[in-house]
Task: structure prediction
Amino acid sequence: MEFKDKMDNLKSLKEDQLRSNVLIPLLSRMGFKAPMLYHGPNERGKDIIAFDYDKLGKKTYIAVVAKTGDLNGSSSDEKSLNNVSIQVRQCIYEPYYNVFSMDEVKMDQVWVVTNGRIVPGAENSIKGFLEDSKLSRFLRFISVEALVQLIDEHYPSYWDIAKETPEFVKGQRDRLVKFSKGLLESLGASERGIRDIETQLLNSEFIPFHSLVSNYKLTKVSAYSIELDKISDKYNHLFFTETVEDFRDIHFSFRKILAKHLLRMEEELKNYAELLKLYDPHEFQEGLRSQLKESYYISEQISDIFHGFDEYSTNLKEIDLFLNDLNKLGKLDWALTLFDSIEKSSNKIQKYLNTAQKQDFNFYWKITEVEGKEIAEFNYENEENSSFGVKMERQMPSYGRSANKEINGKSVIAESSFELYKYIDSTLLTGK
Result:
């Protein structure tokens, strides 16, 4: 591939592609340890974080500010340069919280990387934004031309996958296996079960089947961790009522938002604690004034939490009324078994959707007895002897500018669960 073709390849990338497909693998192959995306609302200027060891064995950290397009020194590009300058300043002045070592570390270098040109004057404009001119020694600027050279030297398999070394591929495989085994272990899988799945994945083209069978749910996936949240057994069912859609999602979503707000509030409270270390009255006054200007976020968060709590409580009350009514009639376990049997049919429905060559569907469910328990059995499109059903189109209508979405097993399960609620309400609860 010619040099110009390589530059064109990089210039065509979006910012997220530049970060994930180029810079992180490149840093890894350059010898940096644990390069990871730090991009997000709390990044404090840092798109990517990585570290290396100096000759004395001390960790040295770098932050990467990744941009697409040219960096110009002209006044017409002042807004773009200001954004980069702000990110660079944040990288240098605001520490990075290392979730692995549970401490704060400062950056030793900041790389500004773009898949475009860096026009003369742009570097000086960014350096001039720093309060201390000596800090410019921490900066490195990498244009598309320099980026091509780095890839040629350290990551040639980006241009040609055949150039990837067997050792590197083996290392990737080993890390994926180790991660998968750890995840399965945290979910309660036995040592024998983990070993069987590992053997299947490494030696067979068939991927083991998986489904949601516990009261755990993935609530956060990031470069740092995968977090699971939990809901009590009583509410671990796909409940639908007239006003509540899948209470589990409501439960997990509110808890996720609450945790995010509390983390931000904790950061602000830490800033106030630092102010108490300022003994000079004027320094204390200015520091407090500056902090108070940004502390409106705490009041906004508290307001959001109260609003979310009201909605959460209303939905929980609706679900409790439904469950209590069923319990009084001695039909609670019966109804929960029906809801669970519908949810377990997701894969069967998806297979049917994949093979059916049609646009309009009438999905029917038949309540039948299996091993002494009544379940809701997916009856495909056979209306005869069915208890309830749902009519759906392959293309689900959407609102605004979003394109229509195609139905899948999960969406059919959701609609069917609501129809089951209406069936239970009409046959058992109405007129009670």
Remarks:
- The chain has 13 helices and 14 strands.
- Residues 332-429 form one domain.
- The two ends are 76 Å apart (CA to CA).
- The first helix runs from residue 3 to 11.
